[in-house]
Amino acid sequence: MTIDTINLDHYGQPPLPWERARAALEGFAAAPDKPSYLSTGDPDGRPHTTGIGAFWGDGGIYFTSGLSTRKSRNLAANPFCTIAIPLSGIDLVLEGTAAVVTDPERLEHIAATARAGGWPAEVTGDALTAPFSAPSAGPPPWHLYFVTLESAVGVATEPPDGATRWRFH
After folding, report:
1. Cis peptide leading into 160, omega within 30 of 0?
2. pLDDT tens profile 99-143
3. What is the topology classification, in CATH, of domain 3-168?
4. Where are the domains of the chain?
5. pLDDT confidence of 33, banded at 50, 70, 90?
């Protein structure tokens, strides 16, 4: 993968390395004290943002959603989205394309990862079920989405300071 780095800092700081952002994402799983927010576009162009239970894996972001939710309907019409995540030392906005994961082996792998993290997810058909999920996920079953990153913006919240956009090819 090729990464283009664009320095957004207007105060003379060097660009932030993608490795700093990627290291902050390692092991990330949303929780009440570690929020993440998904933004999609309604068919009429209005933005829609909601908190989601997201986690980092396989070089992108996973999250679940019932197909009848507004976010899933928006993604069916236009799969481009952003996910905002405040992390230790850096705030990130990840931009990419979301797709429903239907591969049984990948679904089982993610369900096992979720169980290890405390969410008792099980694969049912081409989706996940559990006794509970994030309120914004809608009723079960929940489809698993994977966001393939196209770009990201990072703003440092502790030294070394800076702001950077990364584009992934």
Report:
1. yes
2. 999 999 999 999 999 899 889 999 999 999 999 987 788 889 999
3. Pnp Oxidase; Chain A (2.30.110)
4. 3-168
5. confident
